[in-house]
Specification:
34% helix, disordered N terminus, globular, 18% strand, 5-stranded parallel sheet, binds iron/sulfur cluster, 458 residues, alpha/beta
Amino acid sequence: MTDKKSGTIPLTDLSRHFAEVVPALKPKEAIDEANRCLYCYDAPCIKACPTGIDIPSFIQKIATGNLYGSAKTIMDANPVGASCSRVCPTSELCEGACVLNGEAASQPIMIGRLQRHATDWAITNRVSLFTAPPETEKINNKVAIIGAGPAGLSAARELACLGHEVTVYEAKPKGGGLNTYGIVSFRLPQEIPLWEVEQVESLGVQFRYGVRVGEDITAQELIDTYDSVVLAVGMSSVPMLGIPGEELDGVLDAIAFVEDTKTKPLSDALLGKTVAVIGAGNTAIDAATCSKRLGAAQVQMLYRRTDKEMTAYDFEYEFAKQDGVEFRWLVAPKRIIGENGRVIAIELTRMELGEPDHKGRKSPVPIPGSEYTIPVDYVIKAIGQKRHTQLLEAFDIAHHHGIPVLSENSYRTSHPKVFAAGDFIFGGGKTDAMVVDAAQQGKRVAHEIHAVTSKKER
Ligand code: SF4
């Protein structure tokens, strides 16, 4: 990928480096892999999938050439199953539970890639997998869903299939949320989540794009118009570092930076430049690998703890190292230094690990007098994401630091009409696991609303 002399990627290669990294299985490879499955009774892989996809069943359908049936089995259980086939940490979920792990000369079934094989077939053949119930089975219940990401889409699909009248409000111009805007193209191209949105649209769900609750429509209007409201807005922008120099040109928000690579022509601004990424979660890794693929000569990830405490998955860490990203452990930014309004360097403090915090992770402590400076052209902030606290307050919902308080074993907030799901209620940490978790929460919230409505109707 990188030119050995200059350390940069040729400009003509930028687009190529944003093409999907993991290749699709060829039809014969998929059938051969499907035929390795033991179709276990009480299969552990199903239990390990947060959405409970009937994995042996969809694999068997691939083996018998029934790709429509296979895709339907997947997407019925997980309305964002095509995206999940690419972004799920399968080695920690279904593939990690496969009985073929640990067998002599055997590997677990490539469940993720088989799932992709079946859903790719459905995407290529533009088939509709979901069916809306007939008019006679429709329920007189109007639901507004705020956010068209994995949780919102999943709730919308499930509610529409149960006969509810659903409208999804989305601030962005397209649906899909994190999958469309926040996960790098070389892992998840936009056309995959956009196809999932189409599948939900085909059920008669209305989507209102470019609408911000609190600006274009008030919380009260939603409460007055709908029987139930689901908040599935995910997380907000990256918070401030709280150090001098953040206002300088060249200091970027990792979320917006990744989004630009998915929504705008690829920029050559980073060609040959030096980039520091602050943080070591999955978004930080995405920002670092994007920087490399945009031609940065050197990308350093700066983290105040060590690789043992980082929240990014091991496979992401390995992927970043393969892309040439460098890691600097036990350092924290002290100030960003500029010249004529642009970043030219960053001052760092060395850290050491002290006592464990409330989550059991050792807390980083600055080492006095250890400051040093490195020259950089860009600083990308990836230290987590802010919460949509204002939205909670607009609905007058009880919350703890931006996390809504929910009734026990329920997705119901302190407002009797308002429910919540997805990143909005848990947030932070391992982003990719949350896509599948959010999908399952969307289904659950739909069934909770349905149960409440059914009681009301009796
Ligand atoms: Fe197939 Fe492995 Fe699941 Fe068994 S555990 S059904 S072998 S994928």
